[in-house]
Amino acid sequence: MWHTYLISAFKTNPLATRGVCILPTAVVSFLPWQTSLNQKTDKVRLEMEHKDKSMIIDGRALRFTEGETILEVARRNHIDIPTLCHLKGATPTGACRVCVVEVEGARTLMTSCTVPATAGMVVHSESPEVIRSRRMTIELMLTSGRHDDCLVCPSSGDCRLQDLAFRYKVKGATFTPSGVKYPMEAANPFILRDFSKCILCGRCVQACNEVQVNEAIDFGYRGAEAKIVTKGDRALKDSDCVFCGECVQACPVAALVPKNARLVPRMSETRAVKTTCSYCGVGCQMNLHVKNNRVWHVTGCEEVAPNHGSLCVKGRYGFDFIASEHRLTTPLIKENGAFREASWDEALDLTARRFKEIAGAHADAVGVLTSARVTNEENYIAQKFARTVLKTNNIDHCARL
Amino acid sequence: MSKARMQLMLCSGTGCHATGSKRFHEALDAELNRQGLTDEIKIVETGCNGFCAVGPVMLVQPEGIFYQKLTAEDVPELVEEHFLKGRPVPRLFFKEHMSKEKIPHIDDIPFFSNQVYRAMRNKGAIDPEVIDEYIARDGYFGAAKALNEMSSEEIIDEMLTSGLRGRGGAGFPTGLKWKFAHSSKGAEKYVLCNADEGDPGAFMDRSILESDPHVILEGMTIAAKAINATKGYIYCRTEYQLAIRRLEIAIAQAKEYGLLGTNILGSGFDFDIEIYQGAGAFVCGEETALMRSIEGKRGMPRPRPPFPAYKGLWDKPTILNNVESFANVPQIILKGGEWYASIGTEKSKGTKVFALSGDINNIGLVEVPMGLPIRTLIYDIGGGIPNKRKFKAVQLGGPSGGCVPEQHLDTLIDYEEIAKVGAIMGSGGAIVMDDRTCMVDMARFFMDFIQDESCGKCTPCREGTRRILEILERICDGKGEAADLKSLEDLCEVTSNSSLCGLGQTAANPVLSTMRFFMDEYKAHIFEKRCPAKTCQALLKFTVDAEKCKKCGLCFKACPADAIVWKKKEVAFIDTTKCIQCMSCYDKCPFDAID
What we know:
CATH architecture of the domain at 137-262 in chain A: 2-Layer Sandwich
Largest sheet of chain A: 5 strands, mixed
CATH superfamily of the largest domain in chain B: NADH-ubiquinone oxidoreductase 51kDa subunit
Helix content of chain B: 25-40%
Distance between the termini of chain B: 63 Å
Strand order of the largest sheet of chain A: 2-1-5-3-4
Order of helices and strands of chain A: HEEHEEEHHEHEEHEEEEHEEHEHE
Low-confidence stretches of chain B: none
Number of strands of chain A: 16
Shape of chain B: globular
Helix content of chain A: 10-25%
Distance between the termini of chain A: 56 Å
Oligomer: heterodimer
Mean pLDDT of chain A: 87
Structural class of chain A: alpha+beta
Largest sheet of chain B: 5 strands, mixed
CATH topology of the domain at 137-262 in chain A: Alpha-Beta Plaits
Strand content of chain B: 5-15%
Number of strands of chain B: 17
Strand order of the largest sheet of chain B: 12-11-15-13-14
CATH architecture of the largest domain in chain B: 3-Layer(aba) Sandwich
Shape of chain A: elongated
């Protein structure tokens, strides 16, 4: 049996428990201004004495609250530690190893997304060792599967891996790309699974299991054969998947994209317009991604209630009607059992006249039924019209949840 | 209990089973029946005796005569001569490798006499399926003492005094782990036993479970009292069916005797143990993956902290100890921590079990005191290297460990000392390699194992080990380049430094350690396209040294591919276009003329 227990990752610094923090002189520097940095850190260290709940990140003394991770403290203080697998609202998994930082006294590099801040902790977020590790990790991701076709990739410009490769100047040329191992899956109307783009960060698994709690996918197989699978490795359409698309939104690369993503403008080309979903009464906040006055993608707004980024299959994928060829472009009037085209003036005159005749003659003889496929504003106007003009409460909606 | 005049402790461990102990047992049974000796002479099927190399083995008690390599055909002579007439059969005694001297008594055989039995004190001495035999050897006395006379704090203090460190590999002080879990708040706590032994060449835990299952139950009960847990799990790999069966029997017997379950020994303490069978993933030996597996999820490690002593199985405080660690606990409680700490080095106390395998005469299971030089383990206990070959290195700690070469053979068995030479104590796998083992190929083998067993969760381990393997395969294939050495170093260091769990963090150890001690072999493969140990097939090119060749033609006769041209009184010649690198000629040549 190999390791059952690894020696505590932190070698306890006896001084650390008293709130005193020692920065060893052995920390190798890659910065020309290291001497002044050390002096600065010395000063900071003095300031920190006898203070609980303080730590040092990149030479800055920072306060933290119990339970905060290194990453949270850093972000709050505008220190940019890159992440990839980290998914807000889900348990940190520490899988991708992009957010590793150097913690003084620790045996190995530590993932900032999982390690809680402790008093006296000294962290270097971009030390040479950290950069070396990040570069190698990104290199390994870039050469797993196929990541050499950014020119035709639907996620280009909106890809976390691309951003990281740019930030750390990694080309993905050290190793031979391992290529396509599992065929692409397109046998459903909503989601395209391209396994050759998957870097197994596990965000989709977290999104499915912890955010939506639908538990349709998880890691399968071992080692380099690993793959995100449904139960029994079946196609999504034959699984517990409800196509909410939470995983698609969580995917940092192009492993999970909307079915038609390869044929429409890329996300990075569109402009986000924030709106409220009209399908039901929850009031999910979402972004319509618009280009040339047409909606091409819908995503959930991540920072706001009530949905915090989640959407359902209708909210996320049910927008094709907007640009549908089957939409009516002129009013139709039914005469003798058949429809004929009419002008707006004629149609409105007719409707107004008949409303007056019927609603004026009989109370509550008129009812108004509106649709989830018009905007909330239009729905609002419709009910106002019903109550104040037609003077009836007979107003209803097709998705009254 | 039996009052027979003679007890035949017949090993039925896996090794002896494979070499025919069952057939021997049946023949012996029939013969004793025929002679009407069944009341006088009792056969006891024991767990692994440890000396697997010479199996099937049998110890005749109370005389202590040790027989080896037994077959059914030996039965009539044994019964007639020894059991009836009292004249032991020298033909079946152990024969010393060097002196060829025959040694009748078990205590005089160097393999046994250099060992100190603590974790394996009952191996080969009791019938593992009879609880009374365990109790007769002070079994459950430790639990009785712990439950009735000691407080949790006292138990933990005793464990701390003993200096026992985790025998699964990392060597974390057991008492300290218990102390953390004891101080951790929670009404529900768990005691887990890690029996998911997975290292290639390791069978310590299996043997302990098969030969002495009760000691684990007792050790776990004491641990439960120390941290105040009421439920325990033994996570055992499903391949260990005999171990699982014996554990099940042991649990049932212990419950019947009131040594497990509710109100154990009238102390008011409740503790129950369940066996959980692992599905064969190596990574489930990692503690957090093991816990996830018990929870019914995919065996996949999670980051620490939080450590299991605070948040373990089902997020409750949990301790996980290895089989061998638990096997030491009852004696520590019974005889005291100081007794246990009386042997060993400053920081490594007590004994350690090793599974000796590979190119070594006495393949088997041994328990040695800490502080013993590795040389003694290899040459005195292990009996040295077979076929007069030269020792090259011993791989300690399996795929997570490193190799100890000739020049470091005097390193003491001690967690820190072994770590200094780049290996780890590990769970106790010791694979001995002679001069015909290619170290690059060995590193490749372990990397192949690791990349297969990586869970695939974190990037450096999943992708890094794959790339390391790729490079090693290339080198073994004769396609290595100078830049590969730098890439290997980079990959190994990042994998060790950035992986999530112990598997990834130690995955590169065999490569780093072979690169440290056998860089010349890597260079020979890359720059000279030559495998010095003659293992890597793609690099083999055989020629006949005309000066050494005695023109005997043995190589010609041995070649299965007609690749050797030879006529009487002429020097042989190897046609490399026909040669299939099978090494038959190389092996056959008595004059080392083929190279």
